[in-house]
Structure formats: C-alpha cells, structure tokens
Amino acid sequence: MNIYSFVPRPRQHRYIHSSFSFNYFKPCSTCLQDTGEVVLKMEEMESIRLKDYLGMNQQDGADHMKVSQPTFHRILIEARKKIGCALVCGKAIRIHGGTYEMGMNPLRKFQCSDCQHIWEVMHGTGRPRDCPMCKSMNLHRVKDENEYTRTGYGRHGKHQQSI
Length: 163
Description:
- 25% of the residues lie in helices and 22% in strands.
- It has three helices and ten strands, in the order E-E-E-H-H-H-E-E-E-E-E-E-E.
- Strands 2-4-3 form a three-stranded mixed sheet. A three-stranded antiparallel sheet has the order 7-6-8, with no helix packed on it.
- A hairpin with a 5-residue loop joins strand 6 and strand 7.
- Helix 2 packs across helix 3.
- The longest helix has 21 residues.
C-alpha cells in the first residue's frame, strides 16, 4: 500500500449557468446583534435555483450541472440544510466559493427589430454592427435557453431573468 492510497481524488468542477447579482442575505430584525452567517457555495445556490426555483427534476438538474444525479442530490441536501439553519437560527447567508466553472453557451443570439431575422454570433467576437439580411443597425440580444439576456454595458453586464 502506498502513500497515495489514502488521498482522495480532486473534486470535479460543477457547471453554473447563472451569475447571481447578489451574494448576501441578512435577516431584518429589531436586535442588531450579529448572529453569524452560513456560507452557501455557488453550486449549492445553483442546485436550489434549478430544483426549487425552476422546478427541474434531479436528473435534469444534474445534467445541467454536468454531475451525476446522486451528486446533485447531495449538493441540494447540503444547500437546503444550510438555508434551514439560517432561517431557524436567524443567520445571514453568504453566497461564495465552491468548485465550479461558468458554463455558458458559446453562441449569442441577436434579432433585427426591422426584419425580425434571428442569427447567432460566437462569444468574444463583439456585437454585430448590422443585420446580415437587411443591413439595419436596429438589433438586440435574444434570450438564451436559460431565459437570460445581457443587460448593462461591457463585458461585465448583469444577467437578469424574466419572470
């Protein structure tokens, strides 16, 4: 038996498809004492979003995050346990860290407002100047499969979800 027999393998990255525009929740209370905080990992927040907010079943959520269904279940159970602790004990929730990669579609969709033509452009190529069909400059981003569009300006624009 060698020394490496007891070393666990590296944790596989989980794929997150949404960037959250918030990272801290704190209970509003009359007493101003600090009751502590619970740290919710990004992959745990993503599992809550997929299962509880979007209503996916566990297999679809696991496929979305590129993990097995039992791993998705463990992530979800841990997230719910942390959120329950925060609610019952009045603790703040910090969304931070974890082992994840941002999984995003390599293509962006645009639509011409004049002729309604929809086309796709690779990420990193910049915004198209005009419609390839009618050459109109009146164009906008189309929602992707996660119902997200880019808002704001530049590379770090916020993602919003239409409800």
